[in-house]
Amino acid sequence: MDCKVGDNDELWQILRDEVKTVAGEEPVLASYFHAAVLGHDSLESALAYALASLLGSDVVPALTLSHVIAEGFADDPRITERMRRDLLAHYERDPACDRHYIPLLYFKGFQALQAYRIGHWLWQRGRRGMAIYIQSRVSEIFAVDIHPAAQIGGGVMLDHATGLVVGETAVIGDDVSILHAVTLGGTGNESGERHPKIRRGVLISAGAKILGNIIVGEGARIGAGSLVLDPVPAHCTVAGVPARIVGGLMDTVPALDMDHSINGNGETGDNGKADIS
């Protein structure tokens, strides 16, 4: 889909049409849908409203927060471009997401990621107090803790997202899928660059812990509950505590097909096991 911004924003028009249909099917929610979507003139405006409504507080009221979010959207077009890619990632990869509006209104992984994007924008512009405040509110409301200095690409899906922790020097590339209870953390005895670097197309299954300044190669897959302490080669599957390579090389992109099996259909080669290092 062409994710254009402005009068010809196809994604926004599709989303509005969906909400109109659902509002007709469930009149009790009609006023909510109007306030959250139909009363806005852009996807950016609707998202600013949604995030501010969820994260506003006595300290920073929702109206004030919505202005901060709108300022970020207007200042850096990369935020909204990546946001659209994130929304489509949910629609295309999550079988529970059968309409485009659902991540915008209901998926806290999507919402937490977009709040991080505003926090990152603030961090880069020296407004670190506000960036940390938003991080704290996201952690409190969504149980998702992403440091605003972390670097995250577009087309990222945070599925369920509860318990996700992403450290200060972590890097997450484009088209990555991450499930709940994942930690991209340090080993506790480092300074400077101390968090993982996740390359494009990686799938990180539920409960995985990836620790230290290590690279997880492009198109790799991390098994559920794994403890990863060493670099992971591209297009490999690792699993276990500590994690080891299992199976052969994959010729698919696991983040896109969401195949969590240890020996998925996309693998070629032998089925032996080896250390990551």
Helix-strand category = alpha/beta
Briefly note the CATH topology name of the largest domain: serine acetyltransferase, domain 1
Largest sheet: 7 strands, mixed
Radius of gyration using CA atoms only: 19 Å
Let me know the number of strands.
16
- Provide mean pLDDT, rounded: 92
Shape: globular
Can you tell me the number of structural domains? 2
End-to-end Cα distance, whole Å, is 40 Å
CATH class of the largest domain: Mainly Alpha
Query: What is the succession of H and E elements?
Result: HHHHHHHHEEEEEEEEEEEEEEEHE
**SS strand fraction:** 5-15%
Count of alpha and pi helical runs? 9
Helix content: 40-55%
Low-confidence stretches: 265-277
Task: Find the CATH superfamily of the largest domain.
Answer: serine acetyltransferase, domain 1
CATH architecture of the largest domain: Orthogonal Bundle
Main-sheet strand order equals 3-6-9-12-14-15-16
For this entry, give a set of tags.
about 280 residues, alpha/beta, 7-stranded mixed beta sheet, 9 helices, serine acetyltransferase, domain 1, 5-stranded parallel beta sheet, globular, about 15% strand, UDP N-Acetylglucosamine Acyltransferase, domain 1
Strand and helix map with partners:
Blueprint: H1 10-25, H2 30-38, H3 43-55, H4 62-75, H5 77-93, H6 101-106, H7 108-124, H8 128-142, E1 145-146, E2 151-152, E3 157-158, E4 165-166, E5 171-172, E6 177-178, E7 183-185, E8 197-198, E9 203-204, E10 209-211, E11 215-216, E12 221-222, E13 227-228, E14 237-239, E15 244-246, H9 254-257, E16 273-274
Parallel strand pairs: 1-4, 2-5, 3-6, 4-7, 5-8, 6-9, 7-10, 8-11, 9-12, 10-13, 12-14
Antiparallel strand pairs: 14-15, 15-16
Helix pairs in contact: 1-2, 3-4, 4-5, 4-7, 5-7, 7-8
